[in-house]
């Protein structure tokens, strides 16, 4: 009997091997062993529930076809899954699952109900023994705390949600907590601070901070080394996972898939998930819908550009922490002129200090002004109307000369109006000169264009996306 079951499985493996990439075969099929064949039911053993889910999700069609090839139309596949019971004596037990693909036709039994526990003698090479007792380095930077995260209108919701989550990780409705906002506005700081606070108040909790990029690298690495189960087990054992910059998942389908499974596992077990992103879930592109919909389950809180008072308070706090003393007027000057990115704000202060040390001069306002001239010019560089027009036309694939001509064709009018709107918002040009630049139109046409674009941005999401997109491109250049 044993022989037949091994032969059937080995034959099946040959078909499978011929149909999928070698790497996938090694990862998902080599660790499987055939256990028994009873009638037309072949039972195989897989190393974990995760493995089972993955196989059923990604390979059910192939498995069904292969098993039927080997055992005829009535052929069925069942899995024995080794379940990690590391909290007990350590010896894993197995549980049985039918394959969805085969069960669907002849066996309506739900795959979600494990039906047996046996097989104590089977060793699971993937189980991390006593995962809960692991000593995990949470990868947190102790400089980021909630205390030194200055509160302002720009971050009130996110910050207070952070406090709530830190007090009761996994037990609030803020799960996942998604913090989003543009670069340099404090996402990483806040996410790290929540992690530090949890570690301070709940030292027994396993917390891990990981950037999305690092997670993707680890995943690829684990595929290469055939340690995918260790990788998944590690993250599934956490009480709190903090993933930074999830927009970097864009286009990485397999890693998203893995994260989806880990997310589900943690969420179902009441574990806390905290993620950061540069966009709101609805605006994230390149991410699978099912993952995005998970991100919307809890609370999405945005970080806005801080107002002047908050920027000053942030600078003062940093200075205090570093034992630096700058005249108020210098702090105000810096905070006033660098207004869209806190990282740049801090960078300006640091370069000011460095320069003053080098030149052995006290920092006063005239010195700050002359030193920061280049810095400020770089950060708020004005774009030219010429460039705006060129980029808008490129974006909509409309010739520039048409935009400046009398034509009323719909797509040309749209490009012209957006170009006028951006010229108004991104340059210091007068309405009159903007009109003149766009084919000799008068200032009331420019006002009308700005109003139209404004209105449309409020009502038409797609249109707003275009304008934001172009604006971003302009700022990057
Ligand atoms: P992001 O991850 O959004 O790009 P960071 O979290 O790296 O931004 O923040 C950039 C810098 O600004 C960090 O040094 C951070 O400490 C500081 N920062 C941002 N927001 C605040 C705040 N509310 N209070 C104090 N420092 C802040
Ligand atoms: Mg960051």
From TrEMBL:
GO cellular component, one term: cytoplasm
InterPro entries in UniProt: AAA+_ATPase, Chromosome_initiator_DnaA, Chromosome_initiator_DnaA-like, DnaA_C, DnaA_dom, DnaA_N_dom, DnaA_N_sf, P-loop_NTPase
Keywords tagged on the record: ATP-binding, Cytoplasm, DNA replication, DNA-binding, Lipid-binding, Nucleotide-binding
Domain of life from the UniProt record: Bacteria
Transmembrane portions of the chain: none
Subcellular localization, as worded in the UniProt entry: Cytoplasm
Residues binding ATP: 184, 186-188
Region (Domain I, interacts with DnaA modulators): 1-89
Domain Chromosomal replication initiator DnaA C-terminal span(s) in chain numbering: 384-453
Pfam family, one: Bac_DnaA
One Gene Ontology term from the biological process aspect of the record: DNA replication initiation
A GO molecular-function annotation: lipid binding
Coiled coil regions, renumbered to chain: none
Start and end residues of each stretch annotated as Domain IV, binds dsDNA: 357-477
Coarse class of the protein's main subcellular location: cytoplasm
The AAA+ ATPase domain, residue ranges: 173-303
Residues covered by region (Disordered): 90-117
Biased composition (Polar residues): 90-112
Quaternary structure and partners: Oligomerizes as a right-handed, spiral filament on DNA at oriC.
Domain comment quoted from the record: Domain I is involved in oligomerization and binding regulators, domain II is flexibile and of varying length in different bacteria, domain III forms the AAA+ region, while domain IV binds dsDNA.
Cited function: Plays an essential role in the initiation and regulation of chromosomal replication. ATP-DnaA binds to the origin of replication (oriC) to initiate formation of the DNA replication initiation complex once per cell cycle. Binds the DnaA box (a 9 base pair repeat at the origin) and separates the double-stranded (ds)DNA. Forms a right-handed helical filament on oriC DNA; dsDNA binds to the exterior of the filament while single-stranded (ss)DNA is stabiized in the filament's interior.
PANTHER family reported for this sequence: CHROMOSOMAL REPLICATION INITIATOR PROTEIN DNAA
Family per record: Belongs to the DnaA family.
Protein name (record): Chromosomal replication initiator protein DnaA
Source organism (scientific name): Pedobacter hartonius
């Amino acid at each position: 009997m044993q022989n037949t079951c091994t032969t059937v499985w080995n034959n099946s493996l040959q078909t499978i091997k011929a149909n999928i990439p070698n790497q996938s075969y090694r990862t998902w099929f080599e660790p499987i062993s055939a256990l028994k064949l009873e009638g037309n039911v072949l039972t195989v053993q897989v190393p974990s529930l995760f493995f089972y889910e993955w196989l059923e999700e990604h390979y059910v069609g192939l498995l069904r076809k292969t098993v039927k090839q080997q055992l005829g139309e009535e052929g069925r596949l069942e899995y024995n899954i080794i379940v990690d019971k590391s909290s007990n004596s350590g010896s894993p037990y197995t549980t049985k699952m039918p394959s969805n693909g085969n069960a669907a036709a002849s066996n309506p039994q739900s795959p979600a109900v494990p039906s047996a526990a046996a097989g104590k003698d089977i060793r699971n090479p993937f189980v991390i023994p006593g995962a809960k007792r692991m000593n995990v380095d949470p990868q947190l930077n102790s400089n980021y705390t909630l205390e030194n995260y200055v509160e302002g209108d720009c971050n009130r919701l996110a910050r207070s949600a952070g406090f709530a989550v830190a007090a009761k990780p996994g037990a609030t409705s803020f799960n996942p907590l998604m913090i989003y906002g543009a670069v340099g506005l404090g996402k990483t700081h806040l996410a790290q601070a929540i992690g530090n606070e949890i570690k301070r108040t709940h030292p027994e909790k396993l917390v891990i901070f990981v950037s999305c990029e690092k997670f993707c690298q680890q995943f690829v690495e684990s595929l290469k080394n055939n340690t995918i189960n260790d990788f998944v087990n590690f993250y599934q054992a956490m009480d709190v996972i903090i993933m930074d910059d999830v927009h970097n998942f864009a286009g990485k389908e397999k890693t998203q898939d893995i994260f989806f499974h880990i997310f589900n596992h943690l969420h179902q077990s009441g574990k806390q998930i905290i993620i950061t992103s540069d966009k709101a879930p609805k605006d994230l592109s390149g991410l699978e819908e099912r993952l995005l919909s998970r991100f919307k389950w809890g609370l999405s809180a945005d970080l806005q550009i801080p107002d002047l008072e908050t920027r000053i308070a942030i600078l003062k706090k940093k200075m205090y922490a570093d034992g630096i003393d700058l005249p108020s007027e210098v702090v105000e000057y810096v905070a006033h002129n660098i207004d869209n990115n806190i990282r740049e704000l801090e960078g300006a202060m640091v370069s000011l200090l460095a320069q003053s040390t080098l030149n052995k001069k006290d920092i006063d306002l005239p010195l700050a002004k002359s030193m920061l001239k280049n810095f400020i010019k770089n950060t708020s560089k004005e774009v030219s109307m010429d460039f705006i027009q060129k980029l808008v036309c490129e974006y909509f694939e409309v010739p520039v000369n048409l935009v400046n001509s009398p034509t009323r064709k719909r797509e040309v009018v749209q490009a012209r109006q957006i170009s006028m709107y951006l010229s108004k918002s991104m340059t210091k040009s007068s309405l009159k000169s903007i009109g003149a630049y766009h084919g000799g139109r008068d200032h009331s046409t420019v006002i009308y264009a700005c109003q139209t674009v404004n209105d449309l941005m409020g009502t038409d999401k797609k249109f707003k996306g275009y304008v934001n997109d172009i604006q971003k491109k302009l700022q990057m250049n």
